[in-house]
Amino acid sequence: MKTKIFILFALLFAFFSCDLYSQNAQSPGNNYNIIYDVNTVETVLGQVRSIDNIYSVNNTSYDIIMIIYTNKGDISVHLGPVSYLVDQVFKINTDDNVLLTGSMVAYEGSKVIVAKEVSKGDQVLKLRDDNGYPLWVGQSVK
Fold it and tell me: Which domains does the chain have, with CATH numbers?
């Protein structure tokens, strides 16, 4: 009987651990992973107009977005959670010229780029792997 109870608890623990891990993959800053599409990846050159913090979809952390001016007009670029970006050596400022690669998708009724990589001069900020998986997943997101 004790063995059956132990197995039951072990299975429940494994089930809830997997559920918690899968939530982490969709947690703060990772909500864009749902809409990232490797088939819509493009590279865009532009000048940074503004940089803002916004609440993530689940309102548990701040994400950083920037608006860049391109030859096609202004584009909103979703970078990732503040907690990941503040630890990076790479810094972006208004009026910087940047080259970015990301997935152009529809988000909340607008076209946005979910950034994979941003370059400024010889510096490169990597945000996602080639499949669009966020590099901050598995890190503590504040």
Answer: 1-142 (2.40.50.140)
